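The instructor's notes for this session suggest beginning with a concrete chain rather than abstract definitions. Hand out the sequence below and ask the class to guess, before any prediction is shown, which regions might be ordered.
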Amino acid sequence: MASRIRLEDRECPLSTTVQHVGEWWTLLILHDAFDGYTRFDQFQQSLNISTSMLTTRLKTLVADGLLERRPYQSNPVRHEYVLTGRGRSLRPVVVALAAWGNQHLAAEERAMILVDARTGEEAEPVVVDARTGRSLDDSEMYVFTAGPAASEAMRARYTELERRRPAPDSSVSE
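After discussion, reveal the predicted structure:
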């Protein structure tokens, strides 16, 4: 299958991430893995996905280093699919996506919510800067810029965006 990433986006972390996890079934398989599912039949039953599609998606998740394929039975050989550290690190992203979806539904329309396992209280996921604790949803306060490995094209993009951006309001205190 041809890559959907444009040549100029190959260095963009958003484009490369979407290439790994942007497919519909991939996020649902990962969600099930976060819920503790590890076996082919569990994923298939939970998602009602075709055998061929599940096989393809699991192979891709293993190749991308998000799941590890491990034998759990020897006669006949059967495998389970276990989250790797890289795969587990996607959980906050999936939580944020689910929270965004729920944010646009009335409480009685939510089929799934995130709760504190000990108290049962609903959690309110937000993405914050670990250093300051401030929410990252303000696109004027937090902006992307070229990183150390950026190409000249990427640097030019962010130089132009910075040039067009209004100066920060110095009256805002931290």
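Then share the key points. The mean pLDDT is 87. The two ends are 48 Å apart (CA to CA).
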